[in-house]
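Co-fold these.
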Amino acid sequence: MIEKALVGSKKYWGWLFFLFIVLMVGAANYLRQLDYGLGITGMSRDVTWALYIAQFTFLVGVAASAVMLVLPYYLHNYKAFGRITILGEFLAVASVIMCLTFIIVDLGQPARAFNVILYPTPSSILFWDMIVLNGYLLLNIIIGWTVLDAERKSIAPPKWVKPLIYLSIPWAISIHTVTAFIYAGLPGRSFWLTAIMAPRFLASAFASGPALLILLCFILRKFTRFDAGKESIQTLAKIVTYAMIVSIFFVLMELFTAFYSQIPEHMKHFTYLFTGMEGHSGLVPWMWASTILAFMAVILLINPKMRENEWILGVACGATFFSLWIEKGLGLVITGFIPSPLEKITEYTPTGPEVAITIGVWAMGLLILTVLYKVAIAVKEETE
Amino acid sequence: MNWSRRNFLKLTGLSLLGLGAKPGWEVLAGNENSKFIKGPETLKGKRWAMVVDVAKCPVGCRECIDACHRVHNVPDFKNRKDEIKWIWKEPFKDVFPEQEHHYLEDTLKEKPVMVLCNHCDNPPCVRVCPTKATFKRQEDGIVMMDYHRCIGCRFCVAGCPYGARSMNFRDPRPFIKEINPEFPTRTKGVVEKCNFCVERLAQGLLPACVEACKDKALIFGDLENPQAQIREIVQSRFTLRRKPELGTHPQVYYIL
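Predicted complex below.
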């Protein structure tokens, strides 16, 4: 089937070439980072995880959101998702590969990454994250490819794939739960020490992932003959609406607990994030942008008349995606370190090479996604 | 592979260089092993701990810091971003934020207090490390690190509630004033912290900071030994520990 990715229009090849160039710029910067060390980034003694780990965290959510298609289609036989479930699964594949790459580029000693397997340590959440992420990657590659291949041959998918599909549903929940546990189990980081971290992660994931998928469906309709169909897009839009509302609700729960209890340890990170502290307010404009985008998205989505308009839906999905990207991809990780355990405020600003590497990894993910979608769309166009 | 004369000479030259470097390598690797292995002179304890007598610690003095950083080849990058430190001073109000109140004198609020790794009895850094590069030595409770196993994921840095850990964001070697051949230098991309001078204990010596402190503000010993001075202090005097509510059971005690 992969041969279908090798035939394409000039636009297709141009897009791939563009992504490849961006990826290479990132790779060149990564070589610099390998040589110099992680000091080439904006990370510091106080802020030791930043843009890379934040992208990883955000993208685990995008990957997990495939379950929002798989579950209705396979468990409830919701036919409208039949056409696009493969898009969710392939989006999960590209996202997990990006997640794993972001972890690797964040390692101080990437050549020793296999120590995690050589010295397995079940007490470490990172050990479990490695297992669930790689497992989820494998599941989605196998399921997506097998089901698509069956579709190409116009036969029913083999029976053995069904149990794997059912397994992939709780597995999707597990990847974001385990990723939340990386943060939620640390005694000294009060910003992350919250039992609703995993539910919060899942809620925001089920908003940002499907929002991205809707945008991808619009793009596919513009550039290919593939139409996801009004019903499936509208159902996805409802999922985004509910998930976004729940996501905002969870953040408000956090704010209530912190500020009504008045416990300084629980308030200080939110204070830094939303108002700044001692003259440091690097994240404040970002966080308010995220907040405004989040409420804007909900206002646009909650009214059925409005979300049926595809222009408005597109804007709402863009707002959802960027709002949650800021919340997860910047705010959540960095703020956990500010102020530091010794009450110091060290702000973080990413450096040029760090941004180039980050964009490079995104380009790699988009490249993989483009190739996978090309195959999927080619099969669908052939069989229809 | 095509073995040209040029390649052959290059490789021979490199090998000879390697041979030339052997004595240096032996100093670093060979001695490291023999010195760290326990012998008859080794100080033995069941639960090493430290008491910091804050009142005795003179403002402006940094003898313990310098001694520690010298024997452990801790680099000085001269910037806060890449900074590596094993023992250092912080204002009282930041070390014990829960003890600060409105009427406390500014001199007390700002009083410098020594901070270092707490060698917790229940260390979160050990729990979160995905490779066991950070581990607690069962026999005496010292929280140690294997710099050769550390992958530099910095999960331990996030896990430590005390900010005791430093990441080598750059190659530290050019920033070490004078390399102590008795102790390994680190490579870029690994985490490090105070090791309670495990290498000195093996030789029968007290930790470098304790030895360097002329004012006897740092007291080191085995809490499980009923005759030890540290035991006497910890059981009879009021001591503070940093963030005891987190359940980490820190083993650095403060008296004021």
